[in-house]
Amino acid sequence: MFYSENIVEAVENAIKDIILEFGENSEILLLGRTRYDITVLENSDNFEFSENNTKIKYSPFPNLTLSFLTVHRSKGLEADNVILLNMQNNLLGFPNRISSDPILSLVLANKEEYLYAEERRLFYVAITRTKNRTYLVAPEMHYSQFLEELISTGSVQKTVDENKVDIENPPKCLKCEKGNLLLKTNHKNNQKFLGCTNYPHCDFTINDVNVLKKQVICKKCGGYIVEKKTSKGSFYACSNYPFCKNTDNK
Length: 250
Ligand SMILES: [Zn+2]
Ligand SMILES: [Zn+2]
What we know:
By secondary structure, this protein is α/β, with parallel strands linked by helices. It is built from six helices and 13 strands. Strand 4 and strand 5 form a beta hairpin. The two termini are 36 Å apart. The site of one zinc ion (ZN) has 8 residues, from loops. The site of one zinc ion has 8 residues, from loops.
């Protein structure tokens, strides 16, 4: 989750992503390199802190279980979802340039890879606390070299602020007309799709997950215009195909 300016928005987008996939009762652990990392959220009225900043209420979704810990304190713990704050490339980001062990850093100062060995172990702790997925919140410019390494090995998916999900206006299910469409994963092939919140009572699905971000309504029947992928490329058509054959939406 990259942000250009607004880290609060990036954290909120990660939270919304988790809600869309796992629901409003999700458990989310925010992790910081230092205990000051959580203070960036104090600028927002949506977050309310208690018990020394370790318990957090997110007012738009009060049923979330939201907590904050430093990576050090998270050792040995596990959480359903993890958001790692502060993947910045600066003194206090990851890796933290201010070593807590001055002797060690003196001994190893000439070899950067060893200098960061402890930070690297700590980063590994951070990204392995989750059962589902770890969100790394990083500024678009100057992000952590650890993140850069993960990106170069293809082990992270980059999302930028613009890919925001419109959670206040989720797409309605066109079949039962009561449910909303939520992001789900087909565990057989790992493909994402949208399914109805009334599942298993309603089996409506859409394969084009972009409907979450932008709803284009079919002018002929009120369905969604979705991207259809074929071996020859993709085209746009109505989600009610074959009942509606609208492909140019005029
Ligand atoms: Zn439905
Ligand atoms: Zn249509």
